[in-house]
Each structure stands twice: as structure tokens, then as C-alpha cells.
Design brief:
Blueprint: H1 3-7, E1 10-14, H2 20-28, H3 37-43, H4 52-61, E2 64-70, E3 73-82, H5 91-99, E4 104-112, H6 121-132, E5 137-143, H7 149-157, E6 161-166, E7 174-179, H8 182-188
Parallel strand pairs: 4-5
Antiparallel strand pairs: 1-2, 2-3, 3-4, 5-7, 6-7
């Protein structure tokens, strides 16, 4: 399938509870605990460990949870939330809320099925969510140990810059990358 074919055969929609099973299965393929070290280094990984029930709950309450559908199949997703949606025990997110007063969106997870990778779907998900909140700074926390280099490269390609490091109670140090609101980016271009 060419990139041109792919561009015309997918759509980005808000995640619904009926997508939770497919999202959970896709995310499970990228959990650090289920990947070989080589695959983790080559493709990146997720560490949140959400289950189907968690994704269904996010779909019910989240305004910034999107899936990429190819026909009716979930081939990617982006889970994000605003300052107002931060869970009380989310150490990294709470730290951001204390440090940054302007409106922001945190990207908790982004994932694209391997056979649909390298077609720009993850970038399109980011573009889609940024257009929904054009005045919001966007943050993404990336695990530093083990180093999630594919995620760092991806975010830096999208004009994200590292703004801080923090180690939450799970012991996995995170770097937090940030991108200015798209309204600010377009003003400076």
C-alpha cells in the first residue's frame, strides 16, 4: 500500500468505548515488558500499562482521545488530556500543572500499528489534536531509562523540545518534551 493510497483510506475520530478492545490490544504489543530490548530500541515502547477497561473509561470522559481507523480497524491512537483532567496520583502530570500555568495538553500515549508505521499517521494524529487546542502548549513525557530514542526523535521532528526531567514513583526517569501552541508556531514562521 502506498502512502497516497493510505491517505485516502483512513480517518481520525474520537475514541469510543467500542474501540477499547482494539486499542488495548495494540497498546499491549508495545508495552516495554512485552518487547525484546532490540524491538524497544527500534520501535519505541509504552509503559502506562492500561487495560481495556481503562481505555473504555478514557473514551467516556476524554475530549482528546482519538483513533485512526482504516476501514473499521483501529490502526493507531492518541490519548491526551488537559490540566483539568489530570488524575490526582499522576506525579509527572501534577508536576507540569504546578510549573506551567497556561493551558496545556498532555499526550499520555501515541501508538500506530507496525504495518501502518512510516506513513505519517502519528504526525497526523498530533496535527489533529493540536488543531483542536490551538492555544495549548503540548507536553509528552518520554522514558529515559531505558532510553526511548524512537519517541524522542519523533517528537523532536515535530518541534518538541526537552524542558525537564523527573523520576516518578515507578522509578522510570522521564524527560518531558514540549511544543508551543500552534498559534504561536504559525506567528513565528
Amino acid at each position: 500500500m502506498t502512502t497516497v493510497d493510505l491517505l485516502f483510506s483512513f480517518q481520525i475520530v474520537k475514541a469510543r468505548t467500542c474501540h477499547a478492545r482494539d486499542i488495548s490490544a495494540l497498546a499491549g504489543r508495545f508495552q516495554l515488558s512485552s518487547l525484546s530490548p532490540q524491538d524497544a530500541r527500534a520501535h519505541g515502547f509504552l509503559v502506562s500499562g492500561f487495560c481495556e477497561r481503562d481505555y473504555a473509561a478514557f473514551a467516556k470522559r476524554g475530549d482528546h482521545f482519538y483513533v485512526v481507523l482504516h476501514d473499521t480497524q483501529v490502526v493507531g491512537f492518541l490519548l491526551g488530556y488537559t490540566r483539568e483532567e489530570i488524575e490526582p496520583g499522576a506525579v509527572v502530570d501534577r508536576h507540569l500543572a504546578d510549573r506551567y500555568q497556561e493551558p496545556f495538553l498532555i499526550i499520555k500515549q501515541i501508538c500506530v500499528r507496525p504495518d501502518f508505521a512510516k506513513h505519517g499517521l502519528a504526525s497526523r494524529l498530533y496535527d489533529h489534536v493540536a488543531r483542536q487546542v490551538p492555544r495549548f502548549r503540548i507536553f509528552a513525557a518520554i522514558v529515559l531509562e531505558p532510553l526511548n530514542l524512537p519517541s524522542i526523535r519523533f517528537h523532536e521532528k515535530l518541534q518538541f523540545e526537552k524542558v525537564l526531567e523527573i523520576t516518578p514513583p515507578d522509578g522510570l526517569p522521564r524527560g518531558v518534551w514540549s511544543r508551543q501552541p500552534i498559534e504561536d508556531i504559525h506567528v513565528h514562521e
